[in-house]
Amino acid sequence: MENGLHLYNTLTRKKERFEPINAPNVGMYVCGPTVYSDVHLGNCRTFISFDLIFRYLKYLGYRVRYVRNITDAGHLEGDRDEGDDKFAKRAKLEQLEPMEIVQKYTIGFHDVLRMFNTLPPSIEPTATGHITEQIEMIKGIIANGYAYEVNGTVYFDVEKYSNTYNYTILTNRNLEDMMANTRELGGQDDKHGRLDFALWIKAKPETLMRWPSPWGIGFPGWHIECSAMSAKYLGDEFDIHGGGMDLAATHHTNEIAQSEACSHKQPAKYWMHTNMLTVNGTRMSKSAGNGFLPGELFTGDHALLTRGYSPMTVKFFMLQAHYRSTLDFSNDALEASERGFRRLMNAISLLEKLSPSMETDFNIDELRNKCIQAMNDDFNSPVVIAELFEAARIINTVYDGKAKISALELDKLKKLMNDFVLDIFGLKDEESSNIELNEVLNMVIDIRKSAKENKDYATSDKIRLGLQSMGIQLKDGKEGTTWTKA
């Protein structure tokens, strides 16, 4: 692939060179969570993937405005806005106000992403905080002739829109087949067409979350919020719009339609989507009984897990698969990822213990270029990880005295690991962050060292074997003794 960053654009169904509209400024909008329940792993994978993209764009020198919304209103049962309000249902179930539900699960969402060490977005707007903007956009769509009001509810006219624009441009689906296959739904008699969807919904007497509008008391549909907020903070045209692939067929398709109907402009230049999760080859879902929450994955408190895995292990596991590929969870795969993650962290811990030589056996620039080429190829994190394992091999070889590295190449190696492992991937050593454990182990290692110097090999072996039984592996080298979690 030629030089420069290339990404896969769902809109054109091919890899394209990344050319921001207003470089070096980049606008990126990612559909955030619907905070009426705990965040699920599919959400986590999407946000970890776009955190990687955010970090790498910043590494390349772009000034990125990353907008990730919070859906706290207007998301109903079903993609076409039929059914009961999920926030109201949860509020009644837990006997709380709807905004208490929003606050509770928003905090939980932030806590989970903090455990995964993701960067916060530049702006995190909420749907309820932008009702005015949504109403104004709906008024614009009506003025342009692409929406109509019936009994206090405003619908988007898909058929009329399709006479001018390509409604299925994102998915390349057949519009006639979609219309023929759309089932009869409640409120269908009010709609001009089966594919029409609600922009504003008339509130029922029991509706808890409601706002005044030119069409009466009601609340926004799900899709309009993202169109309104992306336009407010990034303009009518911006660079990247992302989310899970499950959003492409309906939510993102309707976002494009709303934005074009209002501004006559395609909102995003590049559309990016993360793939789904599976468990032992079967699609992950609550109905299948194979879905689990991040907390269950961390503690191992789930029937499908043999034990828990740390947040960094899970994050590393996700990064080992390309964001557009299916990611399959299994205990074996997670255990392999744990070993791989520890291998990288152990190598980084050895870097400061390496002694440079006058000569060198390695060219670190070649290794860095391979990492950059992989990231420039649609953020290919699995290939980068393979190159970082090669860096770990170099570190261990030098530490064991089997190869030499100059001071210049050692500095490059340190910067490589810092840039890609810590800054771009956002990984961190969970073991080294435990100061008390480090201090205790260093003291035990010193006691063992004294025992060996006094030829008290029985005590030395007892310490080594005792630590090994607790999952701590000691490694003796010419630079001293280091420890790793076995």
Report on the architecture of this protein.
The protein is of the alpha/beta class. It has 3 domains: 21-274, Rossmann fold; 278-424, Isoleucyl-tRNA Synthetase, Domain 1 (Orthogonal Bundle), CATH 1.10.730; 435-485, no CATH class. Helix content is 45%, strand content 15%. It contains 16 helices and 15 strands. The protein has helices at residues 41-59, 86-94, 98-115, 131-143, 158-162, 175-181, 222-234, 248-263, 294-299, 311-319, 331-351, 364-376, 381-399, 407-424, 435-453, 457-469; strands at 6-9, 14-17, 25-30, 63-68, 147-150, 153-156, 197-202, 218-220, 238-244, 268-274, 277-279, 282-283, 327-329, 472-477, 480-485. Strands 4-3-9-10 form a 4-stranded parallel sheet, sandwiched between helices. The protein has a 4-stranded antiparallel sheet with strand order 5-6-7-8. α2 (86-94) crosses α3 (98-115), α4 (131-143) crosses α7 and α10 crosses α11. The longest helix has 21 residues, at 331-351. The model has no long low-confidence stretch (mean pLDDT 90).
